[in-house]
Design goal:
Elements: H1 2-21, H2 28-32, H3 41-44, E1 46-49, E2 52-55, H4 63-101, E3 104-118, E4 124-132, E5 143-146, E6 150-167, E7 177-180
Parallel strand pairs: 3-7
Antiparallel strand pairs: 1-2, 3-6, 4-6, 5-6
Length: 200
């Protein structure tokens, strides 16, 4: 029985000694003063106190508290990094989609024997060039007008090329085409005038 009490007392003494050996109640400054601890994360971590950045090693914070702060800071940094990675992926996907949807597509219309060049609906005129002419007819014609809807030469030309561009998401599939004659829509025939009620 006396031996059992002796063993119990020895075990209790060892447990108390072990608790005292754990440096949790040391201050961070005391712990980080040792050369073999200086490069540990808790010794390099900085916190903001009253708007000032202060190293934990310069405070009188207990090591157990400092380790909790370090763990919280590490977890917060990991969450922030994960959020940043997710935001970067979302932004990249949005930019890829936007560039795919809003990329510019162009087509070329070659128009012969006309003085007017136009684009298909959904496209905008970006350039207009006379590509064929004869000196017998006076050489190149003068470009009199160019806007988003059409280009117009002074005289009918043998051939012109009209470059038409649009956003891919708003235009039909581009097609390079050859058009002979005026590309403008045919003019509708006006209705006949109503008979006059006056008789002569």
């Amino acid at each position: 029985m006396a031996h059992a009490r002796l063993f119990a007392g020895a075990a209790l003494a060892l447990a108390l000694a072990g608790c005292q050996a754990i440096p949790q109640q040391q201050t961070v400054a005391e712990y980080c003063a040792a050369d073999n601890h200086k490069n540990e994360g808790v010794c390099r971590l900085k916190v903001e106190i009253d708007g000032q950045s202060v190293a934990l090693a310069d405070t009188d914070m207990r090591l157990s508290q400092a380790r909790a702060v370090a763990d919280d800071a590490g977890a917060a940094a990991a969450r922030a990094q994960a959020s940043a990675d997710e935001a970067r992926q979302l932004a990249s996907a949005a930019m890829t989609k936007a560039s795919r949807d809003d990329s510019v597509v162009c087509e070329t219309r070659t128009i012969q024997q006309s003085n007017v060049g136009t684009c298909r609906p959904g496209y905008t005129v970006t350039s207009c060039t006379q590509t064929r002419f004869t000196y017998r007819a006076g050489g190149p014609s003068i470009l009199r007008e160019i806007n988003d809807q059409q280009c117009r030469f002074q005289d009918k030309v043998l051939e012109m090329q009209v470059r038409c561009c649009a956003n891919a998401s708003m235009a039909p599939t581009p097609v390079d085409e050859l058009i002979k004659g005026s590309p403008t829509a045919p003019v509708s025939t006006p209705p006949p005038p109503e008979p006059s009620p006056l008789r002569y």
